[in-house]
Design goal:
Blueprint lengths: L3 E3 L3 H16 L4 E3 L6 E5 L3 H11 L9 E2 L4 H6 L5 H10 L4 E6 L14 E5 L4 H10 L2 E5 L11 H8 L5 E4 L9 E4 L10 E5 L5 H8 L3 E2 L1
Parallel strand pairs: 1-8, 2-8, 4-6, 5-9, 10-11
Antiparallel strand pairs: 2-3, 3-7, 4-7, 5-6, 9-10
Helix pairs in contact: 1-5
Length: about 220
């Protein structure tokens, strides 16, 4: 597969990263490794690229993709409000498998789908993903699979499902069995509101509860 690059090989890593940057820049899709399952990525600020991602997975705009970011400072650039409980969570679990839904900055010029004014953010713990993010900026990323099929744990498995809809595949060995844990933190912005577990993944609800010392909606 000419579009798949083995990042364990230094030459392929350099070429693959260059091709991935070019692909993202022109609005194409790239499959990347993360600390959980493999993801299919698009420039979060190119609406046509995000729509390509949604179409490749066979989803609708009612299922907007999360956004991966290169560092905690980007959290404040993309989220309108960050509650103290969220700062505690990211200090403990980022980089890692925790995706947090927050109100999006209203000034952002992007179109991720029907988000209801929110954005789901995560900082992954994978050297390839973080290096690419540091060069491209935030990427809209969803699990690298066709909707209804298991999430890909290898770049090869992603290629079987997504094929030519993706321009570049970056391989970094086998990914994890579980996806990230998704929490909705928008409830914390109202008095008496709670954090809600949307999907339990690599980080348990108990671990989150123990850290912030609060009840959760599950």
């Amino acid at each position: 597969m000419d579009d798949l690059y083995d990042c364990a090989d230094e030459a392929q890593l350099l070429t693959g990263m260059r091709m991935a940057r070019v692909a993202i820049g022109r609005g194409d899709l790239v499959v990347i490794p993360t600390d959980t399952v493999y993801g299919v990525a698009a420039d979060a600020f190119q609406p046509d690229a995000v729509q390509k991602l949604i179409d490749a997975k066979g989803r609708t705009r009612q299922s907007p993709p999360p956004v991966l970011i290169p560092g905690i400072p980007t959290l404040d650039a993309l989220a309108a409000t960050v509650p103290d409980e969220v700062r505690t969570l990211v200090a403990e679990f980022w980089p890692g498998g925790l995706t947090i839904i927050l109100p999006a900055q209203p000034s952002l010029s992007w179109d991720l789908g029907e988000t209801q004014g929110t954005v789901a953010l995560r900082m992954p713990s994978n050297r390839i993903a973080l290096e690419l993010l540091s060069e491209t900026g935030p990427l809209a990323v969803s699990s690298a699979n066709s909707t209804g099929l298991p999430a890909a744990r290898t770049a090869e498995a992603a290629h079987e499902m997504l094929g030519d809809s993706v321009s570049v595949y970056l391989s970094d060995g086998e990914g994890g069995e579980l996806a990230s844990t998704i929490v909705d933190a928008t409830g914390l912005l109202v008095e008496g509101g709670k954090l809600r577990i949307v999907r339990e993944g690599v980080i348990s609800a108990d671990a989150i509860r123990d850290l912030i010392g609060a009840d959760l909606c599950e």
